[in-house]
């Protein structure tokens, strides 16, 4: 199995988007402790790099900041063809499934809120998506990343088959 190359977050022009903020209350002897959990997607659309992270804190801005720091450690390079994905793919995580399908120029990103955040952060401009199963943002994002990691370009497929790109 090939090692994943570490992506340097400092050299990228990363844009972040908050996908969800969850208020969590813990009941303790003295009353209730409130905290916030933020799910954040970051990416560089020009480079095709995207990542996600989760952060928890007593206040929303700190939770978002922690989520961004977590996302910078979890960056992935996405194989794209011009403005769309190379082929149809189905990603799974838990009870969540996400189908990604290439679309012709001018279609735009047809996706729900969670998947749209990932696609726009990755720099995909034309794609059709469908979220199947779980609507939990954590599961949907992880299923979307599973699908993006499965994407292969022609050069990778040719190398796996031991053929030239022209033979495919």
UniProtKB/TrEMBL annotation:
What molecular functions are annotated in GO for this chain? rRNA binding; structural constituent of ribosome
Q: GO biological process: what's one of them?
A: ribosome biogenesis
What positions does the domain S5 DRBM occupy? Answer: 14-78
Q: Which Gene3D superfamilies match?
A: 3.30.160.20, 3.30.230.10
Q: Would I find Metal-binding among this entry's keywords? A: no
Q: What is known of its domains?
A: The N-terminal domain interacts with the head of the 30S subunit; the C-terminal domain interacts with the body and contacts protein S4. The interaction surface between S4 and S5 is involved in control of translational fidelity.
Q: Which family does it belong to?
A: Belongs to the universal ribosomal protein uS5 family.
Q: What is this protein called?
A: Small ribosomal subunit protein uS5
- Organism, per UniProt? Tunturiibacter lichenicola
UniProt lineage: Bacteria, Pseudomonadati, Acidobacteriota, Terriglobia, Terriglobales
């Amino acid at each position: 199995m090939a090692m994943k190359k570490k992506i340097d977050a400092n050299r990228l022009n990363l844009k972040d988007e908050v996908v969800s903020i969850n208020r969590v209350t813990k009941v303790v002897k003295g009353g209730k402790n409130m905290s916030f959990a933020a799910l954040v997607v970051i990416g560089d659309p020009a480079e095709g790099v995207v990542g996600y992270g989760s952060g928890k804190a007593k206040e929303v801005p700190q939770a978002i900041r922690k989520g961004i720091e977590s996302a910078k450690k979890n960056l992935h390079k996405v194989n794209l063809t011009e403005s769309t994905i190379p082929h149809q793919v189905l990603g799974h995580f838990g009870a969540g499934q996400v189908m990604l399908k290439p679309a012709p120029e001018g279609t735009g990103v047809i996706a729900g809120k969670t998947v749209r955040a990932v696609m726009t952060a990755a720099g995909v401009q034309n794609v059709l998506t469908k979220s199947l199963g779980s609507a939990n943002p954590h599961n949907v994002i992880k299923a979307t990343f599973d699908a993006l990691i499965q994407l292969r370009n022609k050069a990778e497929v040719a190398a796996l088959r031991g053929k030239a790109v022209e033979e495919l």
